[in-house]
């Protein structure tokens, strides 16, 4: 398939693949087993300039956008989705800064994120606020030239490992979603600590942890954008980041498809490799069609965003939903083709199936996103251009 | 420290075919790579530069496509690259190759260290490094597995020998060849790949090198490859057939025939 990537994009994709094959493949089973954060690989990615792809050139990045980020995430995820999301979460943690940060904030933080010296993370979810993000309870009260943060964030990717956190908290409890603001909070700020590290079904190399704020004083200049804009900025941020989850899902599905084809070619039953059985062929063909369609939808959504579209809620939700449903289906079918051994931990395929499930859940559950797509359809009058 | 690293582009496969006319390797249609041993030389050069300052110049003699190997060298840390390429340079043996490389290195600004891989995976001779040091009249240490210290005028290295290591001190400038234990070569970075893509790699011919055409290439070679062939297997084990009793009888017969028993 021709993806119409430019020279730089091809270079990014091919180097990311090389890192995935040389550095991630040999250790992915161990990282999954031990639930170990992949610091050595983060260092390799940093050395290879991978954290620069989504940062503008004036802040020591390479000036790429959503598509470049998707290409790296996809290639890493083809080998290990847990590693891929640890990388992509740093981009998620810097998106608000990139889009709404002051010049001073950008100069202070972006070069370190670009070089990979420091990882970033984004913190919205709380125990009471999942799909209903407006139900957050963490507060930010104005005091002595800053804001005092109190509350607990839950399921934060890169929690504990990242050094720069974008945290959404209520500056005005009475105004609901209109009372939320975004803050940059550095690790080691007094009053900021980490709770338990979650034990997960999949993406186990990634760190998922609670952030606990107890009278954590954050200087005024750490607010991103205007007070009360936190929620609106976050909705836009998530619209922008969802193709990244789609790319993670595409990479996973691609990895599973390749493994399944390879296995079917070599596994002999009834005197022939099972790939000569039509039942298996039909499964593989369906898997390949879905992966390709998902990839094209993800790339198209990423390009829509990079080309400066004003609104892209629908496109980005479609890409995320379709790609993650594809990842779940394709990895499940891949396990089926592997048969008994596919269920065993000695083969990489069961991990892919475990890793796939989260892509249907986080950054907007697929049900919530379908509702969002439907609501756009309801608003629409007449034919689409 | 100005460091020169000599690299060679080789076929990236062990399944090479041989041209029966010229007795040389057929390189067409095979993906080329940097000789694996040279990647360690390159990495070590870049590490020395990062530690002591200076620059790394990668140099290669080969057909025009060897420029790709030099671009790859830039993508993993070389600052500059020079390609020695001309039809007159073709067919060189190790002597003619070392002669050409020595002349090119002499033309460069003053250098402190020349690093080569211990040998190539295609020719497998391991001769170019030592020949180079002879021609340039500078010291040489082979099979270096660790660089302990460099103080500007001397360097102390560990050299791999069969049963351990020798520690050798050598005045600079000098030539070393390195083994694969010395380091783990890095991957390129996106910024370096972009630099490599746009790098201008000068091509030097015998004219630029001010060298007689008869001193290089096939005509400058002291050796000629008469024939390259895959050795035939002369010993083939006999596999005895039949049931166990029969096999034992045959085995005893054979042993008697060969007067072993």
Give an account of the 3D structure.
In chain A, helix 4 packs across helix 7 (230-266), helix 7 runs antiparallel to helix 10 (349-357) and helix 8 (278-306) runs antiparallel to helix 9. Chain A has 3 domains: 7-118, Acyl-CoA dehydrogenase/oxidase, N-terminal domain (Butyryl-Coa Dehydrogenase, subunit A, domain 1, Orthogonal Bundle); 121-228, Butyryl-CoA Dehydrogenase, subunit A, domain 2, CATH 2.40.110.10; 231-379, Butyryl-CoA Dehydrogenase, subunit A, domain 3 (Up-down Bundle). Chain A has a 4-stranded mixed sheet. Chain A is built from 11 helices and 10 strands. Chain A has 385 residues and is an alpha+beta fold. Chain B has 261 residues and is of the alpha/beta class. Chain B has a single domain, classed as Rossmann fold, CATH 3.40.50. Chain B is built from 7 helices and 13 strands. Chain B has helices spanning 36-52, 67-75, 94-107, 128-136, 190-198, 206-209, 244-257; strands at 2-6, 9-11, 17-19, 24-26, 32-34, 55-61, 80-84, 113-117, 140-150, 154-161, 164-171, 174-178, 203-204. In chain B, the strands form 3 sheets. Chain B has a 9-stranded mixed sheet, with helices on both faces. A two-stranded antiparallel ribbon of chain B has the order 2-5. Chain B has a two-stranded antiparallel sheet with strand order 3-4. Chain B is globular and about 75 Å long. Chain B starts with a strand and ends with a helix. The mean pLDDT of chain B is 90. Chains A and B meet through helix 1 of A and helix 5 of B.
